[in-house]
C-alpha cells in the first residue's frame, strides 16, 4: 500500500455532526458576506470598465491632437486609439488576474482550516 492510501485509510472518518457543522459554518459565512460580494463584483466591473475606457479615450484624444497639429498620411487617432485599447485590456487583465489569485488564496486558507478542524 502506498503512503497516500495508508494515510487515507488510517484517518478517522468525520462524523455526521462534524460534516453538518462544517456545512453550517460555510452557509453562515456565505450569508454574512453575500451583500459584500455583490458590491465587490459591481465595483470590480466598474474598475475594469474604467481601466479600459480611460486609456482608450486618452489615446484617441492624443491622436486627434497629433492629427490636428501634424497632418500626415496616416491616422494617429486610429493608431493611438488601438494602442490605448490594448493598454486598457492589458490593465484589465492584470486586475482580474490579481483578484483571481486573491480568491484562490482565500479558498486555500479556508480549505486548510476546514481540513485542520476535522
Task: Describe the model.
By secondary structure, the chain is mainly α. The protein has one domain. It contains three helices and no strands. α2 runs antiparallel to α3. The longest helix has 54 residues. The two termini are 24 Å apart. The relative contact order is 0.09. The N terminus is likely disordered.
How can the largest sheet be summarized? none
Report, as a whole number of angstroms, the end-to-end distance. 24 Å
State Rg. 25 Å
Determine the number of helices (DSSP H or I, runs of at least 4 residues): 3
**What is the count of distinct domains?**
1
Indicate the low-confidence ranges by residue numbers: 1-10
- What's the total number of strands? 0
Shape: rod-shaped
Task: Please state the structural category.
Answer: mainly alpha
Mean pLDDT level: 78
Order of helices and strands: HHH
Proportion of helical residues: over 70%
Strand content: under 5%
Amino acid at each position: 500500500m502506498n503512503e497516500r492510501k495508508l494515510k487515507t485509510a488510517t484517518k478517522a472518518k468525520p462524523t455526521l455532526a462534524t460534516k453538518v457543522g462544517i456545512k453550517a459554518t460555510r452557509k453562515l459565512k456565505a450569508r454574512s458576506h453575500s451583500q459584500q460580494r455583490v458590491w465587490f463584483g459591481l465595483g470590480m466591473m466598474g474598475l475594469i470598465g474604467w481601466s479600459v475606457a480611460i486609456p482608450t479615450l486618452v489615446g484617441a484624444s492624443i491622436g486627434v491632437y497629433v492629427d490636428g497639429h501634424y497632418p500626415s498620411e496616416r491616422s494617429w487617432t486610429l493608431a493611438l486609439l488601438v494602442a490605448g485599447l490594448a493598454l486598457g485590456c492589458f490593465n484589465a487583465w492584470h486586475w482580474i488576474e490579481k483578484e483571481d489569485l486573491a480568491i484562490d488564496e482565500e479558498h486555500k486558507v479556508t480549505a486548510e482550516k476546514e481540513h485542520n478542524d476535522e
